[in-house]
Amino acid sequence: MDMKKRITLELRNRSPAEIAELVVDNSRSADGEVEGLTDEFTELEFLSMVNVGLSSLAKLPSLPKLRKLELSDNNLSGSLETLSEKCPNLTYLNLSGNKIKELSTVEALQNLKSLQSLDLFNCEITSLEDYRESVFELLPQVTYLDGFDQEDNEAPDSEADDEDEDGEDGAGPTGEYDDDEDEEEDEDGSEGGEDEDEEDYAEEEEEEDAAGVQGQKRKRDVDDEGEDDDDDEDD
């Protein structure tokens, strides 16, 4: 399905100004350009155009509220300066799996002053010596490159953040408190840990001993019965 038709379907009889999120992944761009998007998408905040055959962003319309842009697995090798002109408020940009080879190409993103996260996975540029250091130096506003910051700390997951917040509200203590509590329990052995294992082991031994005694008792009973039978025969 071509991109223009896909966008029309995604509208579902709504006007472009009502759309905040738009996903057209795996549709096709006939000439490698953005098709079907117009300046009327004034409220668009999230746009995903993964694997649509893009080789240029020249026809990208002005999207002033766009914050997240997914462009992975396309054929882009340049024209990134268009992004700072048309999408000045981007905070997240995924360009992984494109044909970006040079640092000079990425330099065009310097005017995206709000950009916090940039992904360039599976682009040739990642094989350059000092790739990460160079990109962070070129784009000081970027906190996370390929999912990690300059100290190799992983970018927080938005869903995980939501779960943490829920935990704070009512699901009981989380984080370091749990670790400390576990350490205390391990140290004094009063709760859980080795004591429980020892108790379980002792119980199993008792059960085995009891089973053994019963087995011996049954054996003696059978032997006694056998002797009684012999006595009967003698009589």
UniProtKB/TrEMBL annotation:
Keywords attached to this entry: Chaperone, Chromatin regulator, Cytoplasm, Leucine-rich repeat, Nucleus, Repeat
Membrane-crossing segments per the record: none
U2A'/phosphoprotein 32 family A C-terminal domain boundaries: 128-146
InterPro entries xrefs: AN32, Leu-rich_rpt, Leu-rich_rpt_typical-subtyp, LRR_dom_sf, U2A'_phosphoprotein32A_C
Pfam families from the UniProt entry: LRR_9
UniProt family annotation: Belongs to the ANP32 family.
Database matches in PANTHER family: ACIDIC LEUCINE-RICH NUCLEAR PHOSPHOPROTEIN 32, ACIDIC LEUCINE-RICH NUCLEAR PHOSPHOPROTEIN 32 FAMILY MEMBER E
Name by which UniProt lists this protein: Acidic leucine-rich nuclear phosphoprotein 32 family member
Encoding gene (name): anp32e
